[in-house]
Amino acid sequence: MDRFPHAPDVDFHSPLDLSKAASAVLDEEGRVSGWGSSAQRLLGYTPEDVLGRPADRLLAATPGQRLSALCKALRPRSTVLELRCRDGHTLRAAVTFCPLAHQGAAATVVVAADLAALRRWEAQLALFHGLATESTLGLTIFDTDMRVVWGNASTDQELAGVAQYVGRPAADLFPEGEFISRHHPPDEDQIMEHVLKTGEPILGMHYRGRAPADPVREHVWSCSYHRLVDARGEPLGLFEESQDVTDRYRAQERLSLLVRAGKRIGVSLDVRRTAAELVDVAVPQLADEVLVDLPPAVIEGRQPPTGSAPGHSLLRMHGRTPEEFRTTPVSYPPSSPQAMSLATSRPVVDAAPPEAPGTAGSPLSHSTLFVPLITRDAVLGLATFRRSSNPDPFGAEEQTLAVELAERAAVGIDNARRYTSQHAAALVLQRSLLPQHLPEQSAVDVAYRYLPADSRVGVGGDWFDVIPLSGARVGLTVGDVVGHGVQAAATMGRLRATVRTLALLDLDPAELLTRLDDLVAQDAESRADDAVSEEALGVTCLYAIYDPVSGRCVWASAGHPPPIVADASGSVALSALAPGPPLGLGGLPYENVELHLSSGSLVAFFTDGVVEDRRTDIDSGIERLTEVLTWQRCPVEELCDRALATLPPGPQADDATLLLVRTRRLDADHVADLELPPDPAVVAEARTLTERQLATWGLSDLSFTAALVVSELVTNGIRYATGPVMLRLIKDRRCLLCEISDNAHTAPHLRRARRDDEGGRGLFLVAQMCQRWGTRYTASGKTIWAELAIP
Q1: Global pTM?
Q2: Rounded distance, CA 187 to CA 628, Å?
Q3: 10 Å Cβ neighbour count for 252?
Q4: Residue 757 confidence class, pLDDT cut points 50, 70, 90
Q5: What gap in Å lies between CA 252 and CA 623, rounded to an integer?
Q6: If you count Cβ atoms within 10 Å of the first and of the last residue's Cβ in the chain, which end, N or C, has fewer?
Q7: Helix (H, G, I), strand (E, B) or coil at 218
């Protein structure tokens, strides 16, 4: 099928060719003595109409005298005549008169053709002549054996003489060239065979190589191949048309490189990765090697040096991953092109640069371009673009491209430097807000692990705490602030401090979360117009209280994952805790969940970063953690390490916090309880019991102080309560705990008694003799407690 079915027929014969032109014979008198069929087709006259008659009758306006002169000429003459056709219209024709002499008879052969058709043919011939001699489009003809037959002037110029290649195969023209278009076979012989065999032209193939006339500079041509056939349709060979598109191709390459640079440079917010991104984009399209030199301050996230160009204390970066990353110190002499580029803040091209320290073993460079990395009017470092295999020097357009890439890299490096600085500050802030060490507890054995998120994500808002409470109890909390950055870390610090403050009021978990929810909601309202407050939208928290005397553990959750509990036998189960809404939302109450834990039970408090990952679901994470907890007999420190070792490899998308607690129970011989009737006479009995119990525990040195504290607290309880009073003594690791519980909900207040007051000095004395004291409320009343340090 023809590629152009509506194309006109192309006839390469001249209209004056004897096979086409109108022909006639005139005698010496100018009469028509011969009339061909082609003349009849041109003018419409039959032989009977014109034979024997004067030829000037066929002329429309030309005088006969001129016609007679043309017939008597001794050599061929050509002219333009206006001929009258049989149908009456006038034809402007090109006419050639050729005199003949044969056996003494004189005659003239006249050949005529439509002048317009002749002019079209001449224009067509001029076009072909221009393509052969003046066109920049290279035309090369090959025979059926794919050997060179002919080439036009453009081909002759590129090949430095096409005659030397006539009869040679196409592969000899550019022995080191290659096709860079991949939608056809890359081998030229295969392409030619395909065109010869199928007749299907192949168009627009990009070919890269070095022309024999310009072996130094690499060129790119757009090549097309067409089959040549004779009048019978038999293949004669094929021709190649090629156009040098080097400048256009390189412009497109530069544009595509800039697009790729916009997508890839500066996306990591890491100084090292940004330098590697510049190398990945520029090699090998722009240069064979790219080196990036930066001051140590920039790599570490600090401000770049000011006052002078940093040419004497740079580090050359190697490696494209954090694992491969290393640096090599470099410095440049003041007269070097590198120092000149840094000093002038302009690119410098050097055809043969001196080798800088630390560059030994580098390949010889044909051309090197030094471009300073500049942003915000500060010089961050230097980018070096080298060409070793490509001998072409860096042109003006390529220098502009390198500057553009360096500017993009400089912005990315500066952003990464600023982010590194802010991330480091946020990490320091976060670590300063988390517990630096946990106090020893009689109630629990504790271990914890905090794994920050990947630096590209930013510092998160995870927190945890272990809070000593009265009565040898302990408060345990873990929470998470949605978001990352300094704001999330600051919000975490405020919430952790608030939880600790509320915990020291001896509030139960549900009450503590309710108050914390109110505070978060109020804080959100006060920051409603502050854009950064969005960082703290969504806060989860879990708070638990464990009592080692009774083994009772009570907890409540504000949108936080429930803990995992493993009893002393190794049986593991998720808590039955039903989480309430996250903090700050309000509207729904928080509920306590109570569980009695045997000594040696293991409880895992965690944030979602421990069990949830973008590559795995949360159920898989909980299953991994549960499996770790089955190793019941391992120390809690080892269990923490085992748990984090099960996390999927790779960067963490979120902070991961794990708090493992192994419970203890206080032995019965460390606790003494006594129920006292509401009678002032029992105060003496309470003192006697206290002294006797302290002697049993070997704490006789505390007898006087403890008896005084107990008598004052029992006296207050009997005075204001309406029912029995409970006295409890607890021997803890470092202190003696005295607790008086009654059914009254009114707490005593410490005051300074006046000189004439009969009472009011009891709590003052208690406060002076104890290291801590306070009041906590229970469902049936209150408990006043006091701690005395064991000497």
Answers
A1: 0.59
A2: 61
A3: 12
A4: very low
A5: 54
A6: N
A7: strand
